[in-house]
Structures are given as C-alpha cells and as structure tokens.
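Sat 14:20. Reprocessing the chain from the morning session after the first attempt stalled halfway. Input below, unchanged.
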Amino acid sequence: MHGALAIFSAVVLSLGVAAQLDDPRKPQEQFASTRWSVVRLAGNDAVSSARALDALSELCQIYWRPLYLFLRREGMGTEEAQDMTQGFFAEMIHDRSYSRADPEKGRFRNFLLGALKHFLADARDFDRALKRGGGQMRVFFDENALAETEAQMATAEKWSATTFYEREWAGALLRQTLERLAQECTDSGKSTFFEEIRPYLGVAGEEAIPYGEISQRLRRGAGTLRSDVARLRTRYRAILREEVRDTVTDASEVDDELRYLCRILAQA
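Finished this time. Tokens:
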C-alpha cells in the first residue's frame, strides 16, 4: 500500500489546484453517474431486474474486495466470506430496499459497509441470499486478488475489520483509476508507454523513475519522456479525484474524503 499512500498524498498536496476543477458553480448534471445514482437506479421498481443486475454487478466487481476483507477480518473463513459477499449482492438485487438509501446521510463508503452489517445482523438473510443468488449475481473472485487480500491479513493483525475495509476501499479506487487510465492510453495508441510507466505511477519522487532505461526501450528522448510521464501522472490524479467524486454527494466533499483515505493509508 506504499504506492497507494504516495498517490493519495500527491493528490492531497495538490488540493489547492485540483479543487479548482470542482467548481461548485458548475451544473451538478456533470456528475450524474455516481455510485449513489447507480444504487438508486438499481433499486427503482420501474427498472427491469436485468438492468438492476447490470448496475449492481459493476459495483460488485469494483468493491467486492473491501467487503470480503472486512468479513475475513471479522473471523469468517475464505469460502464463507466469498459466499457471504456474493449473498450480500444477491440480496440487494432481490430486496431493492436500498432504493431508500439517502445519499445525504454520508459517504457511499459508509453506506455500503452499513448495508453489509445490516445484512449480517440477520442470519436468515444469509440463507435466503445464497438460495436466491444462484446464477443471478456472480462475483468474479480473482485468485490473485484473493491472494493479495490474504497477504494483507497476515501482515497487519492489529488492524480492525473497519480499518481493513477502508484501506482496501482506497485500493479499489486506485485500481479503478488505473483501469480507466490504461484504457485511455490504449485508445490513444500509448499502451506500450503506459505499461512501461505503470510501475512508477505510485512512487514518491522523480528520482525513482529510471528515465534513461525507459527512454532507450521506447526510443524516446529523455526530455520528451519526462514531459509525457508528468502528463500521465497528472491525468492519474485527475481520474482518482473523479473516482472519489463518484462516492460522495457533493464536489465540496472530495478533498475531505481524499484526506481521510490518506490518513487511513498512513496508519502503520
């Protein structure tokens, strides 16, 4: 998570400039597709089950790791935690009671964890969800991702389940940011450049980037390469802000959320 902390720290340090991008005078319609709006869409009785499933499947693939890690830290075994995570999302599809979720009550990060805790509080929900969820909501539990979460469990035994959840939440935001950045580079014919620079996007200082070696491999001048890397890292930070913006109710909350996640990642 050292790279994650470096990225969040870089964004926090640039808040004075980046905040200008979130002008509260701009129409809020530009932020229409937030995580909250996806949940409200999926919970609308007028929306088809297939569309609701598609909406929640996207959230599931992005955020299953924080939820899974919370359950593991609460003492569940690996298979039970996987079943429970899948059952949680399956129950959301069936019940749709989350359509009453009020974005004004807090961050989406807190809403999702609160919804999981409510689900856990009633053991009957687990049994119902497993029966109803078969074939409807399929969570893709990547083996590498599972191995990474288990490694985190082994190296930080003193952290609470909530701390694990919030740290992994920050990780989920960074992974989504990287996926979007990678797609942008692919679309613009710069996938090779991105793969070369990707390992260094989270480093704290320029001196850690081997510009000479990369310049030779890409056959690009060192000066041009430095400029390209600077633009890529700026774009990386901008996308991260957009991802955080999708989880809060107002643009004015982005900076506070970034600072909070940075503090969480800084915990030893």
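The longest helix spans residues 161-187.
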